[in-house]
């Protein structure tokens, strides 16, 4: 099941050229860029691992792509997303965030039902991937 | 990608370089370079050659011919105050107009900005700077400080390795200009053969002649709405060879400092006679006495 979060996630995967164009759009707006990755696709997992520090003061998208390439080389089997932050309100706020890399096979989610007190049913979604230990989920 | 790619390559029978040149918008920048920078003939010559090459390459790619982007990493060598930084800024602009670099900004750094203070600090620092310079020109002033021969564990070596790697792999993304004094740069290149082979253009900035320096001085003053009186020009003509003979002469930079001090003395002279009515002429004119009161003349007389 394809994970759809962030911008463009209902579109076919962005090519490198398209990513470059999007990143340049962010830079032209004066936003800072950040690269994050994770292998836990659960939608409530908002805190992904950071790849290096956020990138401020870039002028050209190629620089961010260079970092993305380095990240993809090591964590190519995981989700990688690019987010851009706008500091003009006085704090850093996310303006755009999109997935740029995803695992080859996305297993999807399982719905867990548990009985609670009296005949209450509780539900939880769990990624099949998270059955395996971190780092080996999409290997 | 070409913005004006309306003509298919095969339909293109002839191209006038002049049209292409006008379309690139590099003409005014090159003209500005010629007009505003005094002297530096070999530098201008080389920049014109590079501009011509890039232009011909653009045309070649329109005809569908192979046009491999040339390596444009450069080294600027010359004595202090010969205009290396000024030319580097112009260079970024010209390369941008000719479509060689995408953004055309200049990031000027020295050793401090590239080399870290502890193990593992250098690589991120250097990469950070390189990322900022992407799409533009990275100007490394006094580049020879990157390599310290006497200390083999110096972190400068690490910065050099990352630089070399990016200079090679991201040739289309940024242009690196190394600048420094000629003798030290020669030693630097001697001990880093990797650099020498990756830097295609070695441009030597000659010292300014005395006449050049006077012209530069007048231009500096004109930009500040000052002018030299006839006698002041003579005084300056005497001043320059005297100053040149002294140690630590830094060409245009020394001249700028001298003129700054002359402005101080002029202001002081006007202030001493503050009861008199001032004319516009008086406020804007640097007189011979403002220059002749310099330490350089006094030492000569003692």
Q: Explain this structure to me?
A:
The complex is a heterodimer of chains A (139) and B (302). Chain A has helices spanning 16-28, 61-75; strands spanning 32-38, 49-50, 79-86, 93-101, 109-115, 121-127. By secondary structure, chain A is α+β, with helices and mostly antiparallel strands. In chain A, helix 1 packs across helix 2. Chain B has 302 residues and is of the alpha/beta class. Chain B has helices at residues 17-24, 26-36, 41-62, 84-97, 111-114, 122-133, 156-169, 182-191, 193-198, 210-223, 230-245, 251-272, 280-284, 288-292, 295-301, and strands at residues 74-78, 106-109, 137-140, 175-180, 201-205, 227-228, 285-286. In chain B, helix 7 (156-169) links the parallel strand 3 (137-140) and strand 4 (175-180). Chain B is globular. The A-B interface holds A 52-53, 55, 57-64, 66-67 and B 102-103, 105, 124, 130-132, 134-136, 170, 173.
Which features characterize this protein?
heterodimer, A: 139 residues, alpha+beta, four-stranded antiparallel beta sheet, 6 strands, B: 302 residues, alpha/beta, two-stranded parallel sheet, 9% strand
- Overall 3D shape of chain B: globular
Overall residue-averaged pLDDT value of chain B: 86
Radius of gyration of chain A: 17 Å
Across the major sheet of chain B, the strand order is 2-3-4-1-5
Structural class of chain B: alpha/beta
What structural class results from the helix and strand content of chain A? Answer: alpha+beta
- Helix run count of chain A: 2
User: What is the end-to-end distance of chain A?
Assistant: 17 Å
Strand order of the largest sheet of chain A: 2-1-3-4
Helix content of chain B: 55-70%
Largest sheet of chain B: 5 strands, parallel
């Amino acid at each position: 099941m394809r994970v759809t979060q962030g911008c463009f996630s209902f579109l076919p995967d962005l090519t490198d050229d398209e990513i470059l164009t999007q990143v340049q759009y962010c830079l032209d707006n004066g936003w800072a860029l950040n690269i994050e990755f994770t292998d836990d696709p659960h939608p409530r997992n908002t805190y992904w691992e950071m790849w290096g520090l956020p990138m401020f003061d870039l002028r050209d998208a190629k620089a961010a792509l260079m970092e993305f390439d380095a990240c993809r080389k090591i964590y190519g089997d995981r989700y990688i997303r690019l987010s851009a932050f706008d500091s003009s309100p006085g704090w850093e706020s996310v303006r755009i965030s999109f997935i740029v890399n995803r695992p080859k096979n996305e297993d999807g989610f399982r719905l867990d039902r548990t009985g609670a007190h009296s005949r209450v049913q509780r539900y939880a979604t769990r990624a099949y991937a998270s059955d395996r230990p971190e780092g080996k989920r999409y290997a | 990608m070409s913005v004006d790619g309306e003509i298919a390559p095969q339909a293109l029978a002839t191209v006038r370089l002049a049209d292409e040149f006008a379309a690139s918008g590099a003409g005014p920048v090159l003209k500005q370079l010629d007009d505003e920078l005094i002297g530096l003939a070999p530098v201008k010559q080389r920049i014109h050659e590079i501009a011509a090459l890039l232009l011909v390459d653009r045309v070649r790619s329109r005809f569908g011919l192979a046009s491999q982007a040339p390596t444009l990493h450069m080294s600027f060598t010359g004595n202090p105050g010969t205009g290396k930084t000024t030319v580097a800024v112009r260079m970024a602009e010209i390369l941008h107009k000719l479509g060689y670099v995408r953004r055309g900004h200049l990031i000027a750094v020295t050793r401090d900005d590239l080399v870290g203070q502890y193990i593992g600090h250098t690589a991120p620092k250097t990469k950070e700077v390189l990322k900022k310079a992407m799409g533009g020109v990275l100007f490394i002033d006094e580049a020879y400080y990157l390599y310290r021969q006497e200390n083999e564990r110096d972190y400068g070596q690490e910065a050099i390795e990352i630089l070399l790697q990016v200079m090679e792999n991201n040739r289309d993304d940024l242009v690196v200009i190394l600048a420094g004094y000629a003798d030290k740069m020669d030693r630097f290149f001697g001990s880093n053969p990797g650099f020498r082979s990756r830097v295609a253009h070695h441009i030597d900035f000659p010292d300014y002649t005395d006449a050049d320096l006077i012209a530069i001085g007048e231009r500096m003053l004109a930009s500040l709405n000052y002018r030299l009186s006839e006698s002041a020009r003579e005084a300056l003509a005497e001043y320059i060879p005297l100053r040149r003979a002294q140690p630590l002469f830094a060409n245009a930079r020394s001249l700028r400092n001298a003129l700054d001090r002359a402005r101080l003395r002029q202001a002081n002279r006007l202030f001493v006679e503050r009861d008199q009515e001032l004319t516009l002429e008086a406020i804007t004119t640097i007189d011979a006495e403002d220059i002749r009161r310099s330490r350089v003349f006094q030492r000569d007389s003692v």
